[in-house]
Amino acid sequence: MQMSEPLSQKNALFTAMNRFIGAVNNMDQTVMVPSLLRDVPLDQEKEEQKLTNDPGSYLRDAEADMYSYYSQLKSIRNNVEWGVMRAEEQRRKRDTTAPEPVRTEPESDMDLEQLLQYHLKGLHGVLSKLTSQANNLTNRYKQEIGISGWGQ
């Protein structure tokens, strides 16, 4: 049985996952020397605002460099491609003394379809933001090393 394709195919979760994975793969292929991303701020505007923000903000912003986002995006891509369960299995193998995670199931009689729609909508939004971050990081890396016009 074949299903007709919806008119808004670009909003499909599978398509969003593919766009995200493609953006991270492009980022991974473009960034030849990831260590160059260390200590490079994500936004130049954010760097300028750091001087005027509250005194403790530099501690939070110190961890928000391009390298940390690069590592985070690659880790999320692996979770999307291989599944979260496989990542948890890998963590358990490394740390055998860790207790089993407690699963919290909703106890109410909430409509499962509504719950699924809620989570899919949230997942789609997160994947869109992560795709944008991967594309921005790739473009920013190209600017930093002076090849901003290549591959466009």
TrEMBL record:
A Pfam family hit: Spot_14
Protein keywords: Cytoplasm, Nucleus
Location of region: Disordered: 86-110
Keyword Nucleotidyltransferase applies: no
Localization in the cell: Cytoplasm; Nucleus
Classification via Gene3D superfamilies: 6.10.140.1610
Biased composition (Basic and acidic residues): 86-106
A GO cellular component entry from the record: nucleus
InterPro entries, sorted: Lipogen_MT_Stabilize_sf, Spot_14
Record PANTHER family: MID1-INTERACTING PROTEIN 1-B-RELATED, SPOT14 FAMILY MEMBER
Annotated family: Belongs to the SPOT14 family.
Protein name in UniProt: Mid1-interacting protein 1A
Native species: Carassius auratus (Goldfish)
Lineage: Eukaryota, Metazoa, Chordata, Craniata, Vertebrata
